[in-house]
Design the sequence.
């Protein structure tokens, strides 16, 4: 395979390679010991060396080198595991390149030419592999070439798909192609001699919409902070809109949210994203949401089939989804028939004899001595083989875990002092003194129990029971108190987690005991606020159980830790389930049923708030028309989603909502919220302000079920199924058509809006934190922030991310407790900082090498905590010193750049004067060109006294030795290149240099100067100078004073930087100002 050319200093280092074929420019070499008869000592040694290397570092046995005659440097351009493969590359080089290379006069041009050719071959191979994954490889290859040609983005900017469409400019459409890549949406059109092209970074997309107007039908509108673009005339608008939303969502989660949202492992590597992977990812997200599976489950097979339903005595057509640990069946109509079979419950998966009535049947046997039949399966043999392979792996894993658990059973079991109650904390039927603790079960409870027992006998019991419309109706009528805990465990599949993790909870409790953290402090503060009126949490037993559940979960998932509202949820779970069961129910809710809800910024809940707002406009248009600003209503819904209405409804009604939640998932909360608004539409429409609207909703929710709960249970008739209070205002008939697929699509779109709103808030907070410390104008500070963020994105877009990403990930992982989230959001590593330094530093200098050296020193100086990253606050402080600070502060910064830690002893200096000993015995007099002579002795003494008298002087700086002073002089000389007063400034520098040399020599002759601060050790024959002496010397030259005090325009520099980015071929053009 062709390789990116890599330098090799010695062509035959340590005699590890044997040359097989050669010519003037290329060598084909074989690894010594490969293909040779055994017994040779050199081959054995090389073979031993290769064998101890890991699989990623092992060397291919064949390689091709590019060599330039007369040079000691070669380049590896190809390698291979077999001689036949590398011979193909050799033949290509001989037939296509060797003759052309002989015409080059300059041999260095040969290396550049060949390296460019090899890179082109690699790019062509990449295009070929990418195109091969598409349905029409030839067309995709052509589109990929056009994409690279038109937009000039780096080769690592991978094209995912493209569409023919129209882009509208006012009322004028432009026909062209919309290219969707991993980081951008790019449009190109060339009609009637007019070219139109622009690129929209996904990181700048704030909103996606489907719009239809008189001229545009089924158009896609992409909004950014600068403008909006409309695209229409797609052959498949639904597919195009879906991919646009997915790519924008993935990019924003990867770029803007450093730790808030989970990103699938496949999507963490953007180079692997293809159209097919996006389709699979969308289906996977839907399956996880529909069946509420663990977020780590991978989707393997999707097959149309029919399942035998004993309750209906027929086969129901639907789709089978298989994942790492589950077999999931869903009827054709979402929610009509759902079957969930954990592989941990499966005994066998077997093929049965195929007949006319039962084509391609598969029998799945489970531990409860039940069997499920699936028919009409395509590719049955392959499907069954894959399922059995995963089943065997899971059974082996369970057996190993069981053997270890049995061996440590006594070690993991909690002692009796831990006080885990074997039963639920308290049966809530009697909460608040509603009756005696020994009161009999009401008639309605008995009726509900009979109905559920009949349902179990017909549909099955346990996690793999059939879930149809009937179970939804039963749950809507209320789950009996005696079955609530069992059904919650079954419907959430927390049972499987409990069975497969025996002893896990007790070990988490033991590990978290005695630990102190921010999460445990918050838990202790909220323990007595959890259902304070309930008797179960008015005693130490209930409080202790709640503490154990919350702290164990915080220890299990430190990324979430503890979030307010988790205490309320865990309290209710403890009332109906055993303590360990409550823990696994909490895991199911926080990690599967409400993903991204309980992180630091509750992004998941805010996304659902935004989805809820759109549902209000769609399902309740009359209310949306009367209340144009729905933000107040959606804000009120935050507690609804976070606590599942437990904090706003009376307890009995709220528990019924939790029942519905475990059946329908988040869809039930959306339906209940819409029903509550619908019931109060008239009052809300007539409300005059947000406060009144919130009072209306609060009063309504407080009264739900109050009449029923105040009546004795025995007074209720038992002739028919009971109707819980919540069902009075939860009309599933009106909002029952809301599906999981619709919710997932809305979430994808609204997550973009929520993340961008967080980004705007982050920017505002960052600017607010920095503004008091700098004198930069608000407009310029905002522009600098955008540049800073853009430079941060560059490495995430096209860099290897090895330094920046690793350092940032480590900083996030360790918490970085010394810095706020705002300070940690965007940070630059050394290459990124040097890039911005070259664009914004006001004194570029006449030597690119010296400017690069100064950039390195500046980064080292700003990286105060040693994490190899510079924050926005540090960056703006540096800019403020250069552009807005007083003369003394600028000189102080220059001084600090030439002493440790900014200047290191190992820093390479190409100057022939590496560290000379400078000496002068001249008096402290300087001769002017005009002949006049100035004595600075008295003037310097007076200025030093004045400087030392200042009360607000910062901490004294270390002294500067001779080597450091030479570097300081080099910087001064490089600052004035191209300035109109260049000659006068050079003369002034010469004067100052001579003056400082005399000061240093005079001090050295007198006595060893006192070291101020902590500097480097100074040799006895070296002299030193202080910051005050250098400052005083510089102040004697008015030309230098005028130059350093000259006003600098940061805004003009930022504008020039944006113009630089706007040059053709510069990929950053698309990152600064989307066109």
Sequence:
């Amino acid at each position: 395979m062709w390789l990116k050319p890599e330098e090799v200093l010695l062509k035959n280092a340590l005699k590890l390679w044997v040359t097989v074929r050669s010519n003037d420019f290329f060598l084909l070499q074989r690894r010594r010991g490969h293909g040779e008869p055994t017994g040779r000592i050199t081959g054995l040694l090389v073979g031993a060396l290769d064998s101890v290397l890991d699989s990623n570092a092992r060397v291919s046995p064949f390689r091709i080198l590019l060599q330039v005659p007369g040079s000691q440097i070669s380049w590896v351009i190809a390698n291979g595991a077999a001689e036949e493969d590398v011979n193909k590359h050799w033949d290509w080089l001989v037939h296509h390149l060797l003759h052309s290379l002989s015409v080059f006069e300059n041999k260095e041009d040969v290396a550049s030419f060949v390296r460019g050719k090899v890179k082109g071959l690699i790019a062509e191979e990449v295009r070929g592999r990418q195109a091969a994954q598409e349905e029409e490889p030839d067309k995709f290859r052509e589109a990929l070439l056009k994409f690279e040609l038109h937009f000039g983005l780096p080769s690592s900017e991978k094209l995912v798909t493209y569409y023919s469409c129209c882009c509208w400019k006012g009322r004028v459409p432009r026909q062209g192609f919309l290219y969707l890549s991993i980081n951008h949406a790019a449009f190109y059109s060339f009609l009637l001699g007019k070219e139109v092209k622009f690129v929209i970074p996904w990181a700048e997309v704030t909103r996606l919409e489907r719009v239809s107007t008189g001229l545009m039908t089924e158009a896609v509108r992409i909004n950014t902070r600068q403008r909006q673009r409309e695209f229409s005339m797609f052959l498949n608008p639904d597919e195009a809109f879906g991919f646009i939303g997915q790519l924008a969502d993935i990019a924003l989660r990867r770029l803007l949210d450093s730790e808030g949202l989970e990103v699938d492992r496949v999507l963490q590597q953007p180079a692997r994203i293809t159209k097919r992977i996006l389709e699979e990812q969308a289906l996977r997200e839907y399956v996880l949401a529909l069946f509420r599976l663990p977020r780590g489950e991978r989707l393997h097979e999707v097959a149309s089939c029919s399942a035998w339903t004993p309750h209906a005595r027929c086969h129901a057509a639907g789709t089978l989804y298989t994942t790492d640990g589950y077999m999931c069946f869903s009827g054709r109509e979402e929610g009509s028939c759902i079957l969930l079979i954990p592989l941990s419950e499966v005994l066998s998966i077997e093929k049965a004899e195929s007949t006319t009535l039962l084509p391609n049947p598969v029998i799945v046997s489970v531990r409860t001595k039940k069997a499920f039949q699936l028919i009409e399966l395509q590719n049955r043999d392959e499907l069954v083989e894959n399922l059995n392979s995963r089943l065997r792996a899971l059974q082996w894993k369970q057996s190993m875990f069981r053997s270890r658990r049995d061996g440590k059973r006594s070690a993991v079991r909690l002692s009796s002092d831990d006080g885990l109650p074997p039963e639920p904390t308290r049966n809530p039927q009697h909460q608040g003194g509603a009756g005696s603790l020994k009161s009999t079960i009401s008639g309605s409870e008995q009726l509900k129990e009979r109905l559920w027992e009949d349902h179990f006998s017909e549909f099955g019991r346990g996690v793999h029971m059939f879930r149809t419309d009937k179970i939804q109706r039963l749950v809507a009528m209320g789950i009996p108190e005696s079955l609530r805990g069992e059904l919650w465990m079954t419907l959430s599949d927390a049972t499987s987690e409990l069975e497969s993790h025996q002893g896990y909870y007790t070990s988490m409790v033991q590990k978290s005991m005695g630990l102190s953290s921010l999460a445990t402090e918050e838990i202790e503060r909220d323990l007595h606020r959890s259902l304070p009126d309930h008797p179960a949490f008015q005693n130490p037993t209930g409080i202790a159980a709640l503490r154990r559940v919350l702290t164990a979960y915080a220890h299990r998932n430190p990324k979430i830790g503890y979030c307010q509202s988790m205490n309320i949820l865990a309290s209710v779970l403890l009332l109906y389930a055993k303590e360990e069961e409550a823990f696994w129910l909490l895991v199911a809710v926080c990690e599967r049923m409400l993903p991204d809800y309980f992180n630091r910024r509750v992004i998941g809940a805010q996304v659902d708030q935004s989805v809820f707002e759109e549902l209000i406009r769609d399902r309740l248009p009359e209310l949306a028309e009367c209340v144009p600003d729905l933000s107040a209503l959606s804000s009120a819904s935050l507690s609804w989603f976070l606590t599942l209405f437990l904090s706003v409804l009376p307890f009995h009604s709220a528990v019924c909502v939790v029942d519905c939640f475990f059946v329908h998932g988040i869809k039930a909360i959306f339906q209940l919220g819409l029903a509550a608004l619908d019931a109060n539409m008239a009052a809300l429409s007539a409300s005059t302000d947000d406060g009144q609207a919130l009072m209306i909703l609060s009063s309504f929710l407080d009264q739900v079920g109050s009449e029923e709960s105040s009546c004795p249970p025995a007074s209720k008739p038992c002739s028919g199924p009971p109707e819980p209070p919540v069902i009075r205002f939860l009309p599933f008939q009106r909002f029952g058509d809301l599906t999981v697929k619709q919710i997932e699509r809305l979430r994808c779109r609204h997550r973009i809006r929520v993340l961008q709103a967080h980004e705007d808030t982050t920017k505002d907070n960052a600017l607010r934190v920095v503004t008091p410390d700098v004198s930069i104008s608000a407009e310029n500070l905002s522009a600098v922030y955008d540049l800073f963020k853009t430079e941060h994105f560059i490495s995430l877009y096209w860099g290897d991310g090895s330094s920046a990403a690793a350092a940032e990930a480590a900083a996030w992982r360790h918490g970085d407790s010394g810095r706020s989230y705002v300070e940690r959001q965007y940070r630059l590593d050394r290459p990124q900082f040097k890039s911005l330094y070259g664009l914004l530093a006001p004194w570029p200098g006449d030597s690119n090498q010296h400017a690069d050296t100064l950039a390195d020193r500046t980064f080292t100086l700003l990286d105060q905590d040693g994490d190899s990253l510079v924050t926005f606050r540090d960056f703006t402080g540096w800019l403020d010193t250069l552009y807005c600070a007083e003369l003394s502060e600028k000189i102080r910064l220059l001084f600090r750049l030439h002493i440790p830690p900014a200047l290191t002893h190992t820093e390479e200096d190409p100057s022939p004067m590496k560290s000379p000993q400078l000496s002068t015995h001249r008096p402290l007099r300087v001769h002017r060109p005009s002949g006049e002579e100035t004595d600075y002795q008295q003037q310097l003494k007076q200025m030093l006294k004045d400087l030392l008298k200042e009360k607000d002087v910062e901490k004294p700086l270390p002294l500067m030795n001779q080597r450091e002073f030479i570097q300081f002089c080099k910087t001064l000389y490089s600052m004035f290149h191209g300035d109109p007063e260049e000659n006068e400034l050079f003369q002034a520098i010469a004067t100052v240099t001579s003056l400082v040399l005399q000061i240093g020599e005079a001090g050295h002759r007198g006595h060893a100067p006192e070291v101020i601060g902590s500097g480097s050790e100074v040799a006895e024959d070296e002299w030193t100078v202080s910051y005050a002496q250098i400052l005083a010397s510089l102040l004697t030259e008015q030309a230098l004073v005028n130059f350093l005090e000259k006003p600098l325009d940061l805004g003009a520099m930022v504008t020039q930087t944006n113009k630089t980015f706007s040059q053709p071929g510069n990929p950053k053009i698309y990152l600064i100002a989307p066109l």
In short: The mean pLDDT is 80. Residues 740-770 form the longest helix (31 residues). The longest strand covers residues 159-169.
